Amino acid sequence: MKVTLIAGARPNFMKVAPIIKAIVAARNSGKDISYKLVHTGQHYDKNMSDTFFEELQIPAPDINLGCGGGTQAEQTAAIMVAFEKYLTQNPTDLVLVVGDVTSTMACSIVAKKLCIKVTHVEAGIRSWDLTMPEEINRMVTDCLADFYFTTSEVANQNLRNAGVTEQNIYFVGNVMIDTLLQNRSRFLKTPLFDSLNLREKKYIVLTLHRPANVDEAEKLKFLMEEIINNVGGEPIIFPIHPRTAKIFRDLGIEAENLHIVEPMGYLEFNYLVEHARAVVTDSGGITEETTVMGVPCITLRDNTERPETCTIGTNELIGTDPKNIRPALQKLYAGEWKKGNIPPLWDGHTAERIVDILTQM
What we know:
- It contains 16 helices and 13 strands.
- By secondary structure, it is an alpha/beta fold.
- It folds into two domains: about 1-175 and about 345-360, Rossmann fold (3-Layer(aba) Sandwich); about 190-335, 3-Layer(aba) Sandwich (Rossmann fold), CATH 3.40.50.2000.
- A seven-stranded parallel beta sheet has the order 3-2-1-4-5-6-7, sandwiched between helices. Strands 10-9-8-11-12-13 form a six-stranded parallel beta sheet.
């Protein structure tokens, strides 16, 4: 079986890394499976993409389609044109897409139009919020896919409700957690730890990039002030997303305990998260990692496509109203945050299960 793997943006790299390792192991054991890795170029900043290939020990992509920049429509179109050309010149048995970025949807459409089977890893997750571009990507991809690899029973049920045949749904766990557990012993102590005199469990990690939080300057300023004023002077480490940086630099926000840093590599960032008091974020993937590492997570969103991080894990949704930040941080500093548990099959062996299933198809 020839499998074409798609990676386009930072979250994808963490998901394809263990799948590549599992395919190589299966092939070395005599299984008839091989892969080609296509990087669409959706993320084109070195700190947002290239670093991840190096740190996660992923072989260089077979091709980089170079489709970074532009509006979402422009990027989708560029990926589709470039990937169609690649597929016609490089036949495959299966296109495997991961997650919910633009590349995932665009490559799924191209593959189906060329009558090539599509497998979606992390299928079935839903926020039910159509203002999120990722939600549209998920829904379109799941409408087209032939096989579905899922992270939870909630995702399984979402697919059943959408009419997906049970025999095509495979509950395998979470490949993001494979990468986390495979690399946890390799986490790198960032130089920030010493230069900022950080202490174990005595600082906050902050990440923000969603439009609901960062597109309105006054709201972002209010949100930042609420965080700064309610952490008791503890350091706030804020690796700033390029999208957020464009708006943030004009707000004039300064505080002794606020440290704005460039986007970080996987190994350094997760070292920082693992040793933090808590994470304040609007990300999805980080909520999964904090759940497994047992780190309190405050999510500035009104919904989540990963409800198990709240019902089982350490995550709590507090919405996008800045007024909700103070009571959440008061709860954290009072030592009243929930401990959480790890969801089923988030055990580091998801990619092995995926490849075992692929080799039996």
